[in-house]
């Protein structure tokens, strides 16, 4: 249970780590836009190069990126096979009668798989180089203009921070409750699906109860430290937009522009 | 019958890789009918150790054998779980059922006992912990007071009528009366049903007063394993690993330093008073 890491952050001191979280969020949005603009497998090289540069600059080991791809490996294989089987095409490589392997199908399968890999890897670059706290801070700042439409930017960011903070706590808690119920002879491993779902009740109910209790305690602790929402709240770590941030945004925009030019030309 | 622990070694894993070992080659035997007190600094591996006694964790090296059942055998674990009852820290957080009765009956139900037997066991267990079955059976566990909830949770373990009862810091967060109630419940269990008690506690006084054997864990190894008198006569060694001795022993040590010839192995009030009467008589 403890092995699960959500939005894992690898502390570091690189240029990428030091960028303002808002910059990194913007960079990621632009990067995602790039991968979606591309309609041809060879042009995926541009977001790929961008990702490699970012990875090298951040000093994050490739291992972490590969780890982030692990959860989607089955999805990837499934998508690849589905496209291989169901994409129609002209240029037949192999004819088995009931199914023809075509040029287009192979290209399409590779194209979609690579695109997903690039998307996930890019998104994990953001969480790998930005601490959850910085990320929610950045998000809050970015969403603040929406306040004129009564959008609860601060509350949303606070909720995200708290949720992230409590993920490991709840994991620990569920492990403890599981152990206690197993000691009372509970069996979570055998039986059909209905039996197994039912056997989760002795874990889920105490988990809910303790979450509510923790939420209550936390609310009291926050209020007794005079928390009253985002208005007039100052910060210990001020977000600062620096030269490097401008530079990073410009380079990213350069990549986007280059991609658009290429797409228009070819 | 007894629990035989032989070269028990255990390491947690993280990301598939083993961390530094938490338990390093524990070897000793817990005799049936004894009251074992486990003490040790936070992080010395006490909780990790007791989780091996009913197979919640299983060691890669060494063996744990409970009444002849080897816990490295997966098939033996279910049997052992009905032999060894386990009360974790803050056990009240495991309550889940709609009524106290149903919650206490959870263990016996898992043991596949018949309804009449379950009823007797639940009633007995609730009476044992001092929750009147008439009054409490139909109430929701979530509307009880803190102390009552803890007792309901302990009843849930007692209803399985374990031969060995393991408690991980069962008195944490209770008031003095609550602590006393739990301790006298444990004594009653031991004298009436011959239940073996294994208790982790940070209170040296409680351990000295109730335990027949004391296990001192230090960084995953057995530091001392002996009677309370012998263990607590090692005041300096215990202090070195961040533990202390019962308050009465501290008094004896201080008296000794000031020239009163009182044995420093005295660790209970009774022994202290006894020595005093004897000493006075001789004077
Ligand atoms: N689930 C776990 N995963 C990894 N390490 C753990 C886990 N549980 C405990 N530990 C570590 O094992 C050591 C012993 O812990 P524990 O048995 O809880 O000690 P104690 O109960 O004596 O305070 C500690 O260093 C702790 O950090
Ligand atoms: Mg512990």
Which helices and strands, and how do they pair?
The complex is a heterodimer of chains A (266) and B (283).
Chain A: H1 15-18, H2 21-37, H3 45-58, H4 62-69, H5 73-86, E1 92-95, E2 100-102, H6 103-129, H7 132-143, H8 153-183, H9 193-199, H10 201-224, H11 243-265
Antiparallel strand pairs in A: 1-2
Helix pairs in contact in A: 2-6, 2-7, 2-11, 3-6, 4-6, 5-6, 7-8, 8-10
Chain B: E1 2-10, E2 13-14, E3 17-18, E4 23-31, E5 35-40, H1 46-50, E6 61-66, E7 69-70, H2 76-83, E8 84-87, H3 100-110, H4 115-128, H5 133-136, H6 146-158, E9 164-168, H7 176-193, E10 196-200, H8 204-210, E11 213-218, E12 221-226, H9 228-232, H10 235-240, H11 247-257, H12 269-282
Parallel strand pairs in B: 5-10, 5-11, 8-9, 9-10
Antiparallel strand pairs in B: 1-4, 1-6, 2-3, 6-7, 11-12
Helix pairs in contact in B: 3-4, 3-6, 4-6
The structure holds adenosine-5'-diphosphate and magnesium ion.
- The CATH topology of chain B corresponds to Rossmann fold
Q: Whole-Å distance between the termini of chain A?
A: 50 Å
Helix content of chain A: 55-70%
Oligomer: heterodimer
Major beta sheet, strand line-up of chain B: 8-9-10-5-11-12
Q: Can you count the beta strands of chain A?
A: 2
- Poorly predicted tracts of residues of chain A: 1-6
Q: How can the largest sheet of chain A be summarized?
A: 2 strands, antiparallel
What is the CA-based Rg of chain A, rounded? 24 Å
What gap, in angstroms, lies between the N and C termini of chain B? 47 Å
Stretches of chain B where pLDDT is under 50 for at least 5 consecutive residues are none
Could you say what the CATH architecture of chain B is? 3-Layer(aba) Sandwich
């Amino acid at each position: 249970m403890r092995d699960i890491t959500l939005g894992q952050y690898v502390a570091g001191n690189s240029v990428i780590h030091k960028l303002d979280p808002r910059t990194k969020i913007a960079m990621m949005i632009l990067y995602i836009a790039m991968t979606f603009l591309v309609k041809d497998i060879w042009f995926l090289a541009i977001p790929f190069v961008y990702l490699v540069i970012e990875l090298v600059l951040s000093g994050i080991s490739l291992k972490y990126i590969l780890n982030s791809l692990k959860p989607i490996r089955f999805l990837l294989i499934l998508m690849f096979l589905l496209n291989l089987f169901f994409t129609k095409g002209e240029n037949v490589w192999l004819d088995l009668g009931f199914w023809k392997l075509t040029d287009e199908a192979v290209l399409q399968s590779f194209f979609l798989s690579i695109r997903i890999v690039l998307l996930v890897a890019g998104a994990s670059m953001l969480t790998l180089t930005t601490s959850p706290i910085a990320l929610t801070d950045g998000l809050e700042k970015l969403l603040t203009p929406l306040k004129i439409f009564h959008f609860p930017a601060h509350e949303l960011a606070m909720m995200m921070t708290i949720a992230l903070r409590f993920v490991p706590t709840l994991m620990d808690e569920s492990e403890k409750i599981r152990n206690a119920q197993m000691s009372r002879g509970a069996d979570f491993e055998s039986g059909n699906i209905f039996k197994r779902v039912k056997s989760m009740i002795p874990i889920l109910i105490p988990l809910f109860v303790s979450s509510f209790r923790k939420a209550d305690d936390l609310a009291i602790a926050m209020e007794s430290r005079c928390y009253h929402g985002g208005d007039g709240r100052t910060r210990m770590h001020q977000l600062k937009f620096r030269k490097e941030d401008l530079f990073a945004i410009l380079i990213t925009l350069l990549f986007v522009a280059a991609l658009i030019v290429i797409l228009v030309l070819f | 019958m007894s629990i035989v622990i032989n070269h028990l070694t255990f390491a947690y894993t993280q990301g598939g890789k083993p961390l530094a070992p938490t338990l390093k080659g524990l070897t000793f035997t817990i005799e049936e009918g004894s009251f074992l007190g486990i003490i040790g600094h936070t992080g010395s591996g006490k909780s990790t150790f007791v989780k091996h006694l009913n197979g919640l964790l299983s060691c890669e090296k060494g063996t744990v054998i409970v009444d002849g059942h080897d816990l490295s055998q997966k098939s033996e674990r279910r049997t052992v779980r009905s032999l060894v009852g386990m009360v974790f820290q803050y056990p009240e957080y495991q309550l889940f059922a709609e009524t106290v009765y149903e919650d206490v009956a959870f263990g016996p139900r898992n043991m596949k006992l018949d309804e009449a037997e379950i009823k007797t066991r639940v009633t007995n267990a609730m009476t044992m912990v001092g929750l009147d079955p008439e009054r409490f059976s139909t109430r929701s566990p979530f509307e009880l007071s803190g102390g009552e909830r803890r007792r309901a949770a302990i009843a849930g373990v007692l209803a399985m009528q374990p031969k060995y009862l393991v408690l991980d810091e069962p008195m944490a967060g209770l008031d003095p009366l609550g602590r006393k109630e739990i301790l006298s419940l444990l004594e009653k269990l031991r004298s009436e049903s011959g239940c073996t008690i294994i208790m982790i506690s940070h209170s040296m006084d409680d351990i000295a007063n109730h335990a027949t054997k004391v296990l001192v864990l230090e960084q995953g190894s057995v530091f001392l394993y002996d009677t309370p008198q012998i263990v607590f006569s090692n005041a300096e060694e215990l202090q070195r690993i961040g533990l202390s001795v019962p308050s009465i022993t501290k008094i004896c040590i201080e008296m000794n330093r000031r020239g009163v010839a009182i044995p420093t192995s005295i660790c209970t009030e009774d022994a202290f008073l006894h020595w005093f009467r004897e000493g006075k008589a001789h004077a």
